[in-house]
Amino acid sequence: MPAFRHDPALGDLLLLDGQVLVVDPGGGHWVKFVVKRVPPLPDRPHGLSYSLTLHDAAGRRLAGYDNAHPPPGRRRRTPEARDHRHGPRATKPYEYRSAAELLADFWTDVDSILKERGVVK
Q1: What global pTM score does this model have?
Q2: pLDDT for res 3
Protein backbone atom coordinates (compact mmCIF):
# COMPACT_ATOMS: atom_id res chain seq x y z
CA MET A 1 0.00 0.00 0.00
CA PRO A 2 1.47 3.42 -0.90
CA ALA A 3 2.54 5.71 1.91
CA PHE A 4 0.21 8.54 2.91
CA ARG A 5 0.83 11.81 1.08
CA HIS A 6 -0.88 15.15 1.37
CA ASP A 7 -3.51 15.72 -1.34
CA PRO A 8 -4.39 19.45 -1.39
CA ALA A 9 -7.46 19.04 -3.66
CA LEU A 10 -9.01 16.25 -1.60
CA GLY A 11 -11.19 18.68 0.38
CA ASP A 12 -12.53 20.17 -2.86
CA LEU A 13 -13.38 16.72 -4.20
CA LEU A 14 -15.16 15.77 -0.97
CA LEU A 15 -17.21 18.99 -1.11
CA LEU A 16 -18.65 17.83 -4.44
CA ASP A 17 -20.34 14.83 -2.80
CA GLY A 18 -24.03 14.79 -3.70
CA GLN A 19 -23.75 17.55 -6.30
CA VAL A 20 -25.58 17.27 -9.62
CA LEU A 21 -24.61 19.93 -12.16
CA VAL A 22 -26.10 20.70 -15.58
CA VAL A 23 -23.18 21.04 -17.97
CA ASP A 24 -24.62 22.30 -21.23
CA PRO A 25 -26.59 25.38 -22.29
CA GLY A 26 -29.65 23.31 -23.29
CA GLY A 27 -29.78 21.45 -19.99
CA GLY A 28 -29.58 18.02 -21.59
CA HIS A 29 -26.39 16.74 -19.98
CA TRP A 30 -25.48 16.59 -16.32
CA VAL A 31 -22.77 15.32 -14.01
CA LYS A 32 -23.15 13.65 -10.64
CA PHE A 33 -20.58 13.32 -7.85
CA VAL A 34 -20.59 10.76 -5.06
CA VAL A 35 -17.44 10.96 -2.91
CA LYS A 36 -16.91 9.49 0.57
CA ARG A 37 -13.94 8.95 2.87
CA VAL A 38 -13.32 5.28 3.66
CA PRO A 39 -10.49 3.55 5.53
CA PRO A 40 -7.45 3.12 3.26
CA LEU A 41 -7.26 -0.51 2.16
CA PRO A 42 -5.45 -2.24 -0.71
CA ASP A 43 -8.48 -1.90 -3.01
CA ARG A 44 -8.92 1.81 -2.08
CA PRO A 45 -5.44 2.92 -1.00
CA HIS A 46 -6.32 6.62 -1.28
CA GLY A 47 -9.13 6.24 1.30
CA LEU A 48 -11.93 7.26 -1.06
CA SER A 49 -15.05 5.71 -2.47
CA TYR A 50 -16.04 7.77 -5.49
CA SER A 51 -18.21 7.94 -8.58
CA LEU A 52 -18.03 10.86 -11.03
CA THR A 53 -20.42 10.43 -13.95
CA LEU A 54 -21.69 12.26 -17.04
CA HIS A 55 -25.27 11.58 -18.18
CA ASP A 56 -27.44 12.53 -21.13
CA ALA A 57 -31.01 13.86 -20.96
CA ALA A 58 -32.39 10.31 -20.75
CA GLY A 59 -30.16 9.58 -17.75
CA ARG A 60 -27.80 7.25 -19.62
CA ARG A 61 -24.23 7.28 -18.32
CA LEU A 62 -21.91 8.51 -21.06
CA ALA A 63 -18.68 8.46 -19.04
CA GLY A 64 -17.50 8.03 -15.52
CA TYR A 65 -14.74 7.37 -13.07
CA ASP A 66 -15.31 5.18 -10.03
CA ASN A 67 -14.03 2.49 -7.74
CA ALA A 68 -17.33 0.85 -6.88
CA HIS A 69 -16.39 -2.51 -8.35
CA PRO A 70 -13.29 -4.17 -9.80
CA PRO A 71 -12.29 -3.21 -13.35
CA PRO A 72 -13.20 -5.73 -16.08
CA GLY A 73 -11.18 -8.93 -16.00
CA ARG A 74 -10.39 -8.68 -12.29
CA ARG A 75 -11.81 -10.94 -9.62
CA ARG A 76 -14.30 -9.37 -7.24
CA ARG A 77 -12.33 -9.94 -4.05
CA THR A 78 -8.82 -9.02 -5.15
CA PRO A 79 -6.73 -6.70 -2.99
CA GLU A 80 -5.82 -4.55 -6.03
CA ALA A 81 -7.07 -1.01 -6.54
CA ARG A 82 -10.56 -0.81 -8.05
CA ASP A 83 -10.17 2.55 -9.81
CA HIS A 84 -11.40 2.54 -13.39
CA ARG A 85 -12.83 4.72 -16.15
CA HIS A 86 -16.07 4.07 -18.01
CA GLY A 87 -15.76 5.48 -21.50
CA PRO A 88 -18.18 5.64 -24.38
CA ARG A 89 -16.91 2.33 -25.77
CA ALA A 90 -14.98 0.57 -23.02
CA THR A 91 -14.14 0.35 -19.32
CA LYS A 92 -10.45 0.52 -18.46
CA PRO A 93 -8.37 0.59 -15.27
CA TYR A 94 -7.58 4.10 -14.05
CA GLU A 95 -4.49 5.08 -12.09
CA TYR A 96 -5.66 7.37 -9.30
CA ARG A 97 -2.84 9.84 -8.60
CA SER A 98 -4.62 12.68 -6.75
CA ALA A 99 -8.00 14.34 -6.34
CA ALA A 100 -6.93 17.19 -8.64
CA GLU A 101 -5.88 14.82 -11.43
CA LEU A 102 -9.07 12.77 -11.06
CA LEU A 103 -11.15 15.94 -11.46
CA ALA A 104 -9.03 17.18 -14.37
CA ASP A 105 -9.28 13.83 -16.18
CA PHE A 106 -13.04 13.67 -15.60
CA TRP A 107 -13.68 17.24 -16.85
CA THR A 108 -11.43 16.60 -19.89
CA ASP A 109 -13.62 13.60 -20.78
CA VAL A 110 -16.82 15.59 -20.17
CA ASP A 111 -15.61 18.40 -22.44
CA SER A 112 -14.51 15.96 -25.15
CA ILE A 113 -17.82 14.06 -25.13
CA LEU A 114 -19.91 17.24 -25.19
CA LYS A 115 -17.88 18.50 -28.17
CA GLU A 116 -18.16 15.14 -29.92
CA ARG A 117 -21.96 15.25 -29.48
CA GLY A 118 -22.10 18.84 -30.81
CA VAL A 119 -23.41 20.18 -27.51
CA VAL A 120 -20.59 22.71 -27.01
CA LYS A 121 -17.90 24.08 -29.29
Answers
A1: 0.85
A2: 46
